Amino acid sequence: MSFAADIFAGRRVAVFGMARSGIACARALMEGGAEVLAWDDGEAGRERAREAGIALSDLREVDFATLAALVLAPGVPLTHPQPHWSVRKAQAAGVEIIGDTEVFFRQVRKTPGVKIAAITGTNGKSTTTALIGHVLSAMSLDAHVGGNIGTAVFNLAPPKWGRIYVIEMSSYQIDLSPSFRPDVGVLLNLSPDHLDRHGSLENYAAVKARLFAHMGAGDVAVISVDDPMCRKALEGVPGAAARVPISVRKVLDDGICAVGGILQERKAGKTVVGADLSMMKSLRGEHNWQNAAAAWAACRALGLSGHLIARGFMSFPGLAHRMEILGQWDGVLFVNDSKATNAEAAGRALAAFDDIYWIAGGRAKEGGIGQLKEHFAKVRKAFLTGEAAQDFAATLKEAGVAHVLCGTLEVAVREAARAAREEGAASPCVLLAPACASFDQYESFEARGEHFRALVEEIAGGPGGAAAEGESTSC
């Protein structure tokens, strides 16, 4: 059954950006009786629209005064570095500018008995979203996962009583969702990211906190108290909503904490129920303990008992490219954390393992890897690739960390596997945690992670694997 959005039935709506979410939203609006004017600046986007059977209208030639709304793709600049031309036209005409998630929210709220859990934060959004969805589904609840995690919201099943939508939301999507009100909202953490799109860290944090702005009685805000900007967001949650703090740094009197991997749900200074996260291989490391604490709180808010949540955690397989354990060969553990596209995310991976043969590099983000010095003692050797290799090498040299310039992932994997096998470390781990975007050599972090997986599988393909071939000792 297709998802029809009739909130703009009989009215004209512009949809700009013909990627996955834009096409799904345009179709839903058309199914609901709206006149959709679709456009994209790029020929590739326009071709995708044609292939999807969506008629195109050059919005540069459209009178925006005739429109009920402009539905803007999340990747299109709303404010920084400057508003897109379609945004300026809409503003001049007094037309509201929203995203597909806002359209989805308004449509879903027309159906009683539907719940929405929304997850945001700088790191961990996808794992937490998937974990919540997994636990709910494992308990036979009607849960559907989408949003920024990969499935456009209008490609999910249409609303009906009892259905639960678990939606990952980026700052871009929140920025385009002015009335969005989840039943359960989760904010995991905040650190510098997407500052080119928001202008400053303060603006970025304010957008994230907007997820809770319309909450009221019956709604639940789950927010980390481990960083100051998240604590500020918790303080700003409207008074009628319930607040559930989470922490992996300290034991809370009230809330969910997971210090040292021991998850506790606490009330009035006493532990009500809990779980040992160290027993769950897919939830390894402090950052995953934070994800688990948030998922626990969200699932409790949606009516599950602690014992059922713990059972669901045990069967969670984890997500590809996020601290993904690929296997262990010749005593060497191989871990794919291609999603670690900034230093903070890479630091979380480094903290989770010992005797690390670290593959890092790509297109660097602001700040480099200097902030990771506290983890460098765990790095036996670093294997550097891509545009950031020289800068990373300078930081590592200053810190006295052994490293080699490898250029490509192929060379880095071969040499890291060789060193991990031959140096006699107690628990060697070849870890891809790039601390960089992928776009210098790959179209996405997923493509980079899949390439890493293929290279590791090649190494594991025979006695000694491909890493035993050749005599090269440097990259």
Structural account:
The protein is of the alpha/beta class. It folds into 3 domains: 12-98, 3-Layer(aba) Sandwich (Rossmann fold); 104-314, Mur-like, catalytic domain (UDP-N-acetylmuramoyl-L-alanine:D-glutamate ligase); 324-462, Alpha-Beta Complex (Protein-Tyrosine Phosphatase, Chain A). It contains 15 helices and 21 strands. It has helices at 20-31, 43-51, 85-93, 100-108, 125-138, 171-175, 195-198, 201-209, 228-235, 286-301, 306-314, 343-351, 389-399, 409-422, 445-459, and strands at residues 12-16, 35-39, 69-72, 97-98, 115-120, 143-147, 164-168, 184-187, 220-224, 242-247, 255-259, 262-267, 270-276, 324-329, 332-336, 356-361, 363-364, 379-385, 403-407, 429-432, 436-437. β11 and β12 form a beta hairpin. It is globular. The model is unreliable at 462-475 (pLDDT under 50).
Helices and strands, with pairings:
Blueprint: E1 12-16, H1 20-31, E2 35-39, H2 43-51, E3 69-72, H3 85-93, E4 97-98, H4 100-108, E5 115-120, H5 125-138, E6 143-147, E7 164-168, H6 171-175, E8 184-187, H7 195-198, H8 201-209, E9 220-224, H9 228-235, E10 242-247, E11 255-259, E12 262-267, E13 270-276, H10 286-301, H11 306-314, E14 324-329, E15 332-336, H12 343-351, E16 356-361, E17 363-364, E18 379-385, H13 389-399, E19 403-407, H14 409-422, E20 429-432, E21 436-437, H15 445-459
Parallel strand pairs: 1-2, 1-3, 3-4, 5-7, 5-8, 6-7, 8-9, 9-10, 10-11, 15-20, 16-18, 16-20, 18-19
Antiparallel strand pairs: 11-12, 12-13, 14-15, 17-21
